[in-house]
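Protein Entry — a single chain follows
Fields — amino acid sequence, structure tokens
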Amino acid sequence: MKFENVRGSIVAMITPFRDDGSVDFDALTVLLERQISEGTDAILALGTTGEYSTMSHEEDAAVVEHTIKTVAGRVPVIVGSGSNSTATQREMSLRYQDMGADALLLIAPYYNKANPEGMYRHFTAAADAVDIPCLLYNVPGRTACSIPVSVVEQLSKHPRIAGIKEASGDMSYAMKIARFVGPDFALYSGNDDITIPILSIGGSGVISVYANVCPRVCHDIVTDYLAGRQQQALETHLKHLQLMNDLFMEVNPIPVKSAMNMMGLPAGSLRLPLCEMSEGHRIDLWTTLRDEGLV
């Protein structure tokens, strides 16, 4: 299925692990089928939530292959091919394109950072090499660098850069890059708590952690807003805001995997350096899940 400015809820999938740390592909199938049956509009594999940074390239490829095979064209599959090595990002982008990805998620160069020209070249090296749409990923809390507004403007004109996942949480920044939104460049919220504000400035949807827990609710918030039912969407968003916030009480994806396991979903374990939640946070999260009728 082609990625053509998808509007709606895109789930940033977790990667389920067994107790021995290996990828649990049976559980991944269950979780993917749940997403599709609950109305999720697209799947993101190997995002931050998927713990790709702790996985080998062989494991990454196996997860992508399994995801594409299981989804079987029912919704678009976006694959995170990002790296702080420009050469690696280009190589992985070509690899996942050849495996059947519908679109790619390209990250700002973390750790080594870059000046604006280096940032521009980092993204265009991958986008020039592939034939499928690419999304920029701005998440300075992880990368220690934000994509400059001027660079977003340049990249928004690239024929294969189709949008941006904006996960800075900075609405001032989001307002500035909203000027570049159009038929060929989409804006997606990368933070569940500001989905409605992002939609209000021309956003096309959310790339969501919360959708791992409540895919139908996440889908309905975006669908209702885009269909003109803004008040209904806002009420639903506010109703579930506490859980959205609780999923970030510790570093993602620790809380979302914990929540899914509490709900009886096969999220499995985490990989170091991520580990289980503190007991106090577990109690707070369980209480919110209970109040939402999820446990």
About this structure: The chain has 13 helices and eight strands. Residues 57-71 form the longest helix (15 residues).
